[in-house]
Amino acid sequence: MNDDCDRANAPRVDWDAEAASFDDEPDHGLRDPEVRRAWAGRLRGWLPEEPGELLDLGCGTGSLSLLAAEQGHRVTGVDSSPAMVGRARAKLAGRDAVFLVGDAAAPPVGERRYDVVLVRHVLWALPDPDRALRHWQGLLRPGGRLVLVEGVWGTLTPVGISADTLTALLAPLAAQVRVERLSQDAVLWGRAVTDERYAVVATA
Predict the structure, then answer these.
(1) Helices H, strands E: what count in the chain?
(2) Residue 87: which H helix or E strand, with range?
């Protein structure tokens, strides 16, 4: 599969228009208690045990940000959609979290550095994923980690980025790279899936 072609075919989506119904997907809104527990458990395994500074890029309505905050992490979320950011701010009102409107590939965080950069289903659609990964790696404190949830979706015209491609991109940037396959965990998605879904945890 040509991942470059996949990115060229990434659908143009009006995320402001999608914000109102975004959480209707089981793995977006995490409204089902079982789905929510499944994501919380996975996140606990990917994030450091000690509370730290976490940057959630392409945060959407903030569902993963909320789980991270509940686990004690201080969250900064970034999304290009003002409507998504508004919903994330409402979802995490009163918690130690800040949400910014901006480009996930080059987030508007200045010189701040983080213990974790968390990105779900964003990298595959970026025009230059290698450049984005290098930028994100530069946002980490020493020993920090990238947590990337990605996949390849569809059968007739698949789109996405494969685990093999992503780990190859990370090889010169990370001391350790761990791949966790997620396709067989139907609870995460609210249904059984057959395509490639995975998480990569890369330690700087």
Answers:
(1) 9, 8
(2) helix 82-91
